[in-house]
Amino acid sequence: GQIDAAQSSPKRPVWVMHGTADQAVPLSLGQKLSQSLQAAGWPVTFTPISGAPHGWMWRSQYGHTNQELWDWFMKNPLP
Length: 79
Description:
By secondary structure, the chain is α+β, with helices and mostly antiparallel strands. The chain contains two helices and two strands, in the order βαβα. The protein has a two-stranded parallel ribbon.
């Protein structure tokens, strides 16, 4: 089944990161997820990761660091 994002609460910030070279899940699906969440009232940041494949998570060659992730969590704490 599917989860109705509009009915979910509380709506906490979501950061969707998607590699542009992902061959397992098309970039368009990450974009669609972000748009659907935003339409349901969620605060969403969508970041396409240039050249990154599926499973790229935080490898420095793609220009992102673990510190960037921790900084985002600190700016978006759970209530």
